[in-house]
Amino acid sequence: MQASGKLILVDRLLNKIFAKGEQVLLFSCFTKTLDIIEDYLANKKVGYCRLDGTMDLDDREEQI
């Protein structure tokens, strides 16, 4: 399976950051990009919280 160069770079960076036990905040203006990142994190079994405009306001506030 091939991945985009950008996703390969994100993978390398996140592996280094997670190895230190640190957290990451990723921003994107595009929900499709968030979908891809969400799939990536789920496959890596990394916990994440997604905040976007499709969420109910109460759910979003609870996540924050």
List keywords for this structure.
single chain, 64 residues, mainly alpha, 55% helix
Percent of residues in helices: 40-55%
Helices and strands, in N-to-C order? HHH
Q: Biggest β-sheet, characterized?
A: none
Sum up the overall morphology in one term. Answer: globular
Radius of gyration: 13 Å
Low-confidence stretches: none
Number of helices: 3
Q: Distance between termini? A: 35 Å
Which range does the strand content fall in? under 5%
The oligomeric state is single chain
Going by helix content, strand content and strand pairing, the class is mainly alpha
**DSSP strand count:** 0
Calculate the mean pLDDT score and round it.
Answer: 88
Task: Write structural notes for this entry.
With 64 residues, the chain is mainly alpha-helical. It has helices at 5-19, 31-43, 57-63.
